[in-house]
Amino acid sequence: MIWQRFLEVAQTHASATAIISDEETLTYEAFIECVRNEAMKLPRRPEIGMPARVLLVPTEPATLLLRIFACWSLGLVPVVLREGQSEDSLKRISEIAEPIAILSDESAPQANLHAPHEAASPFSARQEALVMCTSGTTGTPKLVALSAEGVLATAQAIADELSFTEGDIIAVPTPITYMYGLMGASVTGLLSGAALRLFAQGIPLTVVQATIRRENITVIQGPPSLMRIFLAYWGGTPFNSVRLVTTGGEYMNPDLVTKLSEAFPQSDFRLVYGMTEAGPRISHSRTVSYRETGQVVGKPFDHFEWRIVPVELEDLPEGAGRLAIKGPSVCLGYIQSGNRYIGVDDDGFFCSTDIVCEVDNAQLCFLGRYDRLFKTGGKLINPLEIETLLMRHPDVYDAVCRSEEHRLLGFIPVADVVLEKDATTEVSELIEHCSELEPHAIPHRIDIHSELAIAASGKRVMSKQ
What's the sign of the alpha-carbon dihedral 208, 214, 220, 224? Predict the structure, then answer.
C-alpha cells in the first residue's frame, strides 16, 4: 500500500531529486534501484498472519531510509530503533517484537532471495506497517505500531497543510529514528515528490546553515531546542531561499518566533503539535499564543475525532483533561509479547498523557504532560507552567522544572536554567520573577547552568521525577 503509493509518485517524478546527502544525490528512479538492492538483504515475508518485523539498527540517514522503504517493498514491517540502545534494551525489544531479521551495517547480503522486480504483497489498510520506539527514558522503550493507512493519512495531511511539492528541498537535521524526522519530513516529502537534504547526526549547525545557502533549501524543520541553538550560531545574514519553517514538540517562546522571522524573512511559519502515537502530527498553527497557562496548538486535522477525558486532579482549568484521539493515523497500540496491542480502547481512541483544554473555535490548548505533574504538600504542580514563566524572562535562554523529594512536602519544584549569553541575572531575581505563581509553585531552588542536556532529536532532556 505504501510502496505502491511511492511507486506512483516516483513514476511521475522519476528524474527529480529525491535524496541529497554528503555522500550522494539520488533521483527518484535511482532511489528505487537502491531500495531494491537493500531488499536483497532481507528475507521473504513468511506466509503467516502475524506481522513480519525487521529490526533496523540506526545507521546514516540515507541508508536507514532506503531500508525502511525496502521493508515496505516486500511487505515487511520496519522496526526503527533509537540510537544508543543498550544490549539489554535491544534484547527486550527483540523479545517483544519477535523479528524475522535484524538489519545493520554488519548484515551480510543474502543474494537471490528476490527477483529484482518482484511485486510485494501490499499491506491492507489497518495492517501493521511501521513500528517506532519511544525514548525509553522511564524504562523499556515502548514499541508503537502504526498501520499502512496511518502512514499514508499522516503524510497526506502534512503535505496538504505544508504544500510540499517537487522543487522543495526539505532540510532534515532531526534524526529519522524519531517520528518528527521520519514522518514529519522524510516520508511525507518523498510521497510528495520533494527532495530531502539529509544530515548525519551531530553535524555542526554551522554546516547546516552553509548548506541551506549553497543548496537553496526551501523548508527546514526541527524542535525548538535545536532552533535556538541554530540561531545562536547565526551570523545575521538572512536565509532567503527558505519558504517554510516548522517547529514544535516542546515549549515555544514567542521571542523564538520573532528571531526565526528575522533569520527566515521569506518564510511561512508552522507550530506543529503531535506525538509518536498519532503518526506524529495532530495539528498545525501559524502563531504562538497562550490561554489558561498553556500554549494554543491549533485545531486537530479533520481526519481526527477527539475528546477530553477528565482527570481527578484539582487546580487544573475547567474542562481540562487528557486528550483522547481516534482516526486513521492513530496507532494500533503498544506492542506486547504475543503480538498483542494495548493502549487503544474498544472505540478506537488512544488516551494520551497530554493535558489539554478546548479554547477558541475548537482549538487545543496544551497544558502539560500528565506524567510530569506532581504534588507538593497536597497541591498540584505543573512543571510546564513554571517553565513557561521562566522562559518569558528576557535573560532566560532555556529552563526545565523538575521535582525533588522533600521529607515534609513529598516533592518540591526545582528549576534548571540557562541564561542568555553575557546575562548576569541573579537567582534572587528569577525567584522574584516567579512570584506571580501560586506560592506552592514558586521554585524552592533555581540552579543556573551553562547548558542543558539535549537528546539526539534536538529536544531538551527532561529530568526524571
Answer: positive
206 alpha-carbon distance from chain centroid = 23
Calculate the alpha carbon distances from 15 to 1, 35, 166, 414 in Å: 23, 16, 11, 55
Give the pTM. 0.89
Per-state percent for the chain, helix, strand, coil, to nearest 5: 30, 30, 40
Question: CA 442 to CA 415: how far, in whole Å?
Answer: 10
| Nearest-10 Cα torsion for 245, 21, 249, 275 | 120
Angle, alpha carbons 188-189-191 (nearest 5°): 65
Type of residue at 402? R
Residue 124, pLDDT score: 74
- Summarised one tens digit per residue, pLDDT across range 204-260 is 999 999 999 999 999 999 988 889 889 989 999 999 999 999 998 877 777 889 999
Q: Please tell me the distance from the alpha carbon of residue 226 to that of residue 196, in angstroms, as a whole number.
A: 18
Q: In what order do the strands lie in the sheet with 169-172?
A: 25-27, 17-20, 195-198, 169-172, 219-221, 244-248, 268-274, 281-285
